[in-house]
Q: What sequence folds into this?
């Protein structure tokens, strides 16, 4: 191969490549190679102390080509730097990016599903969107459940809820060999950037509470309810229906909203929104502190 040379490498006396020759062979711009040098991703074998010209070994030409391909695949500079410094393996770098892409694909699929749902679920009347079932009276019964506390952000609440319910299921399975049904979560009535989210499942079996889990009592009382069978991103439609109807009737919310996640029987998940109503006898819920067989207090995680 004919290529411009600029002296020889000190280690193996092999010819060095100019930055222009590397750019032509790797199909990267000179500006990109300079940027990768400054970022610690591809450091030249030699930099002339007077001219500041950069020179590369033949092996670094292959490295430059691979870096260009990895960048096209979306791998961030931080991972490329860790790869160059030996803090990250090549297979691990590929796995990280594959995970990122799968999350992005999932998010885009959910966005498409949301657009489809919005298109097919335009409000059919002034009473509310067709996607939401009729708002009905409901009655909450006293129920002791296993629960977890997690810190959540309003913009990532769906993912946080899913992760927390998975953690709770794993804790139950490890402790008693089975997972409780009737999953749900409790949310503040007023949206907030950060808040403490409580998820719960029916107690899987009698006996000690799984480590890291809190036994929680859902109080009895009147409520208003509506169901939505659509992407969770559309739950705001169900909230609007329930809260608007309660306001029209002069009903006072108890302060929190319960979501119950119904068994999946179709292509979309179904969620029941329950708005507990304040009464003179029960307007709040209280968590009961439970101890394990070793006497350690198990509280919110």
A:
């Amino acid at each position: 191969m004919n290529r411009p040379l600029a002296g020889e490498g000190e280690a193996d006396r092999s010819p060095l490549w100019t930055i222009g020759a590397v750019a032509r062979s790797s199909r990267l711009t000179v500006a990109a190679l300079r940027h990768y040098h400054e970022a610690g991703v591809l450091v030249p074998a030699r930099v002339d102390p007077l001219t500041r010209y950069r020179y590369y070994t033949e092996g670094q030409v292959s490295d430059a080509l691979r870096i260009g391909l990895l960048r096209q695949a979306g791998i961030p500079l931080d991972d490329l730097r860790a790869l160059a410094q030996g803090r990250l393996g090549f297979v691990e770098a590929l796995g990280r990016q594959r995970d990122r892409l799968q999350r992005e694909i999932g998010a885009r699929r959910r966005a498409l599903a949301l657009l489809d749902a919005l298109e097919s679920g335009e409000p059919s009347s002034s009473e509310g969107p067709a996607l939401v079932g009729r708002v009905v009276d409901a009655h909450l019964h006293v129920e002791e459940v296993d629960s977890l506390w997690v810190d959540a952000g309003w913009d990532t609440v769906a993912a946080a809820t899913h992760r927390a319910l998975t953690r709770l299921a794993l804790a139950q399975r490890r402790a008693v060999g089975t997972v409780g049904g009737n999953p749900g979560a409790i949310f503040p009535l007023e949206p907030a950037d950060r808040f403490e989210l409580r998820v719960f499942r029916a107690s899987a079996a009698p006996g000690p509470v799984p480590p890291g889990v809190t036994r929680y009592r859902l109080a009895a009382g009147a409520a208003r309810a509506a169901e939505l069978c659509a992407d969770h991103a559309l739950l705001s439609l169900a909230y609007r229906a329930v809260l608007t109807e309660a306001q029209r009737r002069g009903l006072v919310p108890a302060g929190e909203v319960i979501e119950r996640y119904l068994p999946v029987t179709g292509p979309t998940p179904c969620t029941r929104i329950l708005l507990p109503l304040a009464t003179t006898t029960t307007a709040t819920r209280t968590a009961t502190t439970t101890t394990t067989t070793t006497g350690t207090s198990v509280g919110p995680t």
About this structure: DSSP finds seven helices and 17 strands in the chain. The two ends are 64 Å apart (CA to CA).
